[in-house]
Amino acid sequence: MVAGAIQGSASTFALRLQANCGPPDPSFGKGGLVVIDKSIEIAELLVLPAGQIQLVGMAETGGVFLARLAPDGSFDDSFGSGGRLSTPLTGGAPNAATLLADDKLLVAATRFVDGAHETLLRRYTNRGVLDSSFGEQGVIAVNLGADVIPAALVLRDDASFALVGCHEYALLSSVTLFTADGSLDPAFGTGGTAPLILGERTCIHDAVFSDSRLFVGGFAEHGAAQSFALAAYDTGAQRSLSFAPAQASVPEATAAATLTVQLSQTAAQTVTVRYEATGGSATNGQDYTLASGTLAFAPGERVQHITVALANDSADEPDETLIILLSDPSNAILGGNARFTLTITDDDGANQPTQYRVSIPLVQQ
What digits encode the pLDDT tens for the residues 91-118? Predict the structure, then answer.
């Protein structure tokens, strides 16, 4: 697939060639060509798993222009308005984009605000509307550093992603890692961002993930000499915190229950996470005792424990539950088991002697 502007015309084209760079594919558009009656500066051309073509570019008046074509080159009416969508963005334009699960689209755009560049991550649903579950109504503002403009947006298998950028005057480049929800990855660089300076001037143009490593490529200048630059970052798998296991049952006669919280992999920095009893039918201070607190994993540690003191009473009562949640992690994210359910089983009824009632008739003589 090839896309671009038609010289001397206020139109944009998409061209699909046959295999091995053969002639235009006659099954696409008209003789392999689709013409859009708008002048668009194309930033990305992406192909969806089902064969649709996603165009991302800057509209004539600025802002984000999106178009989605069906495999035959017709506009996909299920996307935007008649297959097209234009979003105003004062003083801004899209720079990079990537496809997500469920045919969602993530776009990195830049706008000029108060004398500096600001990066916006915009996530669209497969219908072409901003995804309200992402950031603030589908948009997250990111500070990549003064005058750093996005160059590439790449997705990792776990749905986390990297955004690489280049300073407007190529003085330096930066790499920023995000979790799947758009939060900065605190385990990478400083607050999720790492600068890259390989010479007097450095500019990254593209990036690709290979397992846990992120390769970035561009150029570096040393005096009058300019050379190709390639750097690799070991991002590691995303460190996560989870209960292991996430549920247990203990008799109330047990003095205490010990819960295990596990870090998916060791970290070079201290990892912390808060825990708190948040619900269940058991009563804190009566059936158990647990104050909220914070666990700290020193560099190299993977396991910490939470101890819940249990109260053994003589009342015959139903089994009761206690729910404990993990929250506010630092240098890691919450894993799939951030909620623990402890069932406190009653053992009083089973230990009581069986009582019998015997009736003896009174006979009068």
Answer: 678 889 999 988 999 999 988 777 777 8
Please confirm whether the linkage preceding 245 is cis (ω < 30° from 0). Answer: yes
3-state SS assignment for residue 348: helix
- Please tell me whether residues 38 and 99 are part of one structural domain: yes
Last residue of one domain, picked from the residues 183, 208, 234? 234
Same domain, 305 and 223: no
CA–CA separation, 232 and 215 (whole Å): 4
Q: 166 or 127, which is more confident?
A: 127
Higher pLDDT, 180 or 138: 138
Are residues 197 and 103 part of one domain?
A: yes
Q: 27-44 in b/e burial notation, b at 16+ Cβ within 10 A?
A: ebbeebebebeebbebbb
Cβ atoms of 260 and 275 closer than 8 Å: no
Q: Could you list the residue range(s) of the whole structural domain that residue 269 is in?
A: 240-349
CATH code of residue 129: 2.130.10.10
- Are both 226 and 272 inside the same structural domain? no
Cα 229 to chain centroid distance, Å, stands at 28
Two tokens, residue 123:
């996530």
294-333 CB burial, b ≥16 within 10 A, e <16? ebebeeeeeebebebebeeeeeeeeebbbbbbbeebebbb
Per DSSP, 365 falls in state -
Tell me how far CA of residue 131 lies from CA of 26, 104, 136, 179, 181, in angstroms: 36, 9, 9, 16, 11
Largest CA distance in the chain: 130
What would the pLDDT profile of 277-329 be if each residue is shown by its tens digit? Answer: 998 999 999 999 999 999 999 988 999 999 999 988 777 778 999 999 999 99
Long-range contacts of the stretch 308-311 (C-beta < 8 A, 24+): 308/256, 308/257, 308/258, 308/259, 308/342, 309/255, 309/256, 310/250, 310/252, 310/254, 310/255, 310/256, 310/257, 310/344, 311/252, 311/286, 311/287
Helix (H) / strand (E) containing 271 = strand 271-279
- Residues with Cβ within 8 Å of 29's Cβ and at least 6 positions away in sequence, in order, are 14, 16, 35, 72, 73, 74
Q: What mean pLDDT, rounded, does the chain reach?
A: 84
What residues pair up with 36 in beta bridges, in sequence order? 12
